[in-house]
Amino acid sequence: MARSREAARGHEDPGLQPERTSLAWGRTMMALVTVSAIFLRWLPHHGLPILLLFAVSTTAAGVIYFTQRRRYSTSTAGITHETVDADTSAVLWTASAAVALGALGILVVLAG
Amino acid sequence: MSTNQPPSGDPAPPRRGKIAERLLPGGTEPDPRFTLANERTFLAWIRTSLALLAGGIAIEAFTADLFLEPVRKGLAVLLLLLGMLLSAGAAVRWIRVERSMRNKTPLPLPLIVPLLAGAGALAAAVVLVFILWR
User: Fold this and answer.
1) For chain A, what is the radius of gyration of the CA atoms?
2) Which residue segment(s) compose the domain that A53 sits in?
3) Between B26 and A22, residue with greater pLDDT
4) Which residue of B has its CA nearest to A99?
5) Any domain includes B4
6) d(CA A97, CA A87)
7) Which of B39, B100, B101 would you mutate first to test chain A, the one with the most A CBs within 10 A?
């Protein structure tokens, strides 16, 4: 693909924006993994419904993991072309996953 | 693939997605650095809200023999609700910032900042009161 060739050639941004952005996604992914571990830790107290929260956070972390390469290529090409398409869908699904975690968490706490 | 196209000279701008067209209409493409910075700020808010969500789930279980049940549940729900509002608010803020960058208008004030500060202080006050009067 043209984009990945461009990514391989790198970009001219001394501010390393593509790197910083994919690192920010990576940190978010690790936060999601940590949060899933915390959910599992309290499985004995909250019971099986907590597995739903574990599933949501692990899935979100997995999606980030498998889109990292594409994200880096896209933002590198974006820097090269001086225009990058705002990643609306990624923002929306990440926020939705966090909102879902909150809603499920409230249900688990109130039901327990 | 062997279809070896020559390195294209035309800098075909990336096509905009359907959701982006609908949510971020009009204006001109902002500096890609600003778009990426906006995305990183959104992610920082999401991580904050994840910490609150994990805290909400943990406090309910962790403080089982420390606080009365209504206090435990109240605190847990407060933290979880705050995490929810912050992550939804982070997405809204991301859209508003993106829009104002496209239209070259001043950036909106972050409403999620007073929300986090207020609810965080409230949660701390509840814990303080119940630790002192336990």
Assistant:
1) 18
2) 2-111
3) A22
4) B84
5) no
6) 16
7) B39
Which two tokens mark A76? 């590198």
C-alpha dihedral sign at B67, B73, B78, B80: positive
In a domain, B120, yes or no: yes
B22-81 residue pLDDT tens:
888 888 888 888 999 999 999 999 999 999 999 998 888 877 777 888 888 999 999 999
Q: Chain B: nearest CA to A69, how far in angstroms?
A: 16
With vertex at residue B19, the alpha carbon angle to CA B14 and CA B21, rounded to the nearest 5 degrees, is 60
Is residue A20 less than 8 Å (CB to CB) from chain B?
yes
Is residue B60, in this structure, part of any structural domain at all?
yes
Structural domain harbouring B46: 29-132
pLDDT score recorded for residue B68: 83
User: Of all residues in chain A, what percent are helix, strand and coil, respectively (each to 5)?
Assistant: 85, 0, 15
A99: chain B residues, CB-CB within 8 Å: 84, 87-88
What ipTM was reported for this prediction? Answer: 0.89
